[in-house]
Amino acid sequence: MQFIGPLVLFSILMLCGLIFGSIAEKRHYQSIRQRERALVGILTYPQRLPPPQLPAPTTALVVGSVVISADYFKRFIAVLRMLVGGRLDTYETLLDRARREAILRMKEQAEQLGAQSVFNMKLQTAAIAGRSARAGTACLEVVAYGTALIPPHGLSQPPTT
Amino acid sequence: MLISNLEVVPGRRVKEHLGLVQGSTVRAKHVGRDIAASFKNVFGGELQGYTELLNDSREEAMARMQAQAQAIGANAILNVRFSTSSVAQGASELFVYGTAVELA
Amino acid sequence: MAPRSFPLMAYHNRLPPEHINAQSGPWLADLLRRLAMVVGVFAVLFWLLLLLLTELTRLTPFAWERTLTEQWQISSGTDSPAYLQTLTEQIAQAGGLDPDITFTLHRNNSEAINAYATLGGHIVIFDGLLCKMNSEQALAFVLAHELAHLHLRHPIRSAAQQLGLSLSVALLFGQSNAGQLAGLSGSLALLSYSREFEREADAWAYQALLRHYGHINGSGDLFEMISEQDAQTLSWLTTHPHSDHRQQRRLKLAEQHNWPTAGQLTPLKVGLLCNRD
Q: C5 vs chain A: nearest CA distance in angstroms?
């Protein structure tokens, strides 16, 4: 009898996590894909050095960051996974989303500055779960940063290569 | 596919810079390994189970990065960087990213 | 597209395809398969651990148990009257209590209807129970039941089982801190026995009564009394099987072994034991 209360609560949380979590994920992916296509013109490279033949641009550090948390359902599946081992599929989508979102935010910042490209882009992930970290709670921050190259004014078209 | 953390490959010219490619995987070891590791924490030494786990993850992450690079028509990935983060207790993510390029 | 395109031809971005870093394979089947494997392995390990602990407790002499519990402050009442002590000794002799095992009677002045036996041969009887007894045989059954727990080494076997369980849980969830183990040993004084142990103890008690009185009449009075009462107020029920089941089992055993269920009941000098009102 005493187990019924927590069991009902657990089922509700699981269901909430499953339903709202997958709706949110679907929407987020849609938005990510759309924005990625829109911002494909902001060229992004992890490589350190911009092409030397580029007309002297001004530079600016651009940063995009996002903090995400897993829903209850994902977290429960992950806890089971930690017991049995193997790939934590439910967290992989989470991290994929977070990373792409962070890059997009960085690109959006670069776009606002009028930049055309971001070089030496780096990505960093940090688990920022506090006291609940032991319980398998994933609360992650992903930061994307790089140097945006803003072309000098008046030079809008390429000086043919 | 050439994978390197160099910026340029000596003797070869980069024909096309294709942008960021990334690969990641999140994995956990089963609880038996965790128990073995907690014993190892007392005596010290290499945690072989975890070394193996991370090696597997690294391979998988690199395979995924390569898959992305291949899909966008690159034949090399330069300036590759690895990063590991612990997503939750007992689970770790291995992430690798680099610049996909087409070498001449 | 960005308003101005990048000036160099060799530089452009291509978007990699989806689902390389977020694959959705048959994860549920894989998870369930692995889960079954882990549960299986743990069940086997847990069973082996229990087996080992049980064997170890079998080899533990009673004297160790006794010295271990010497400092325990169990008694919280008046001394038990000589009559109770004598009766318990008689029952112990009739039942064939292991000569290595020594028991100590304690009285608890609480009104709770309860009695228990714990590590080190300590038997605690609550005044609430004593006041309810309507014959010597009924009281003798309670005493015999608790003696049976001691004879069959139930306290230490239960302790071993609980230890095994806590150890497994601690290992499984990675919380093997010493504080938990310390807390566990503190709760050992209040062991609850499995239903199997209770059945074994009941069977031993009937035989002790049979040998002492020649019949088992009166031994079921306790069950009758308890099943009439409000179950909520009885701590006896939380640690013992349901009384109706025990009564049924008693009658079944009596039938199987041809135990006489009728016989002369010895009246109990209640005033001697129950010093209330």
A: 7
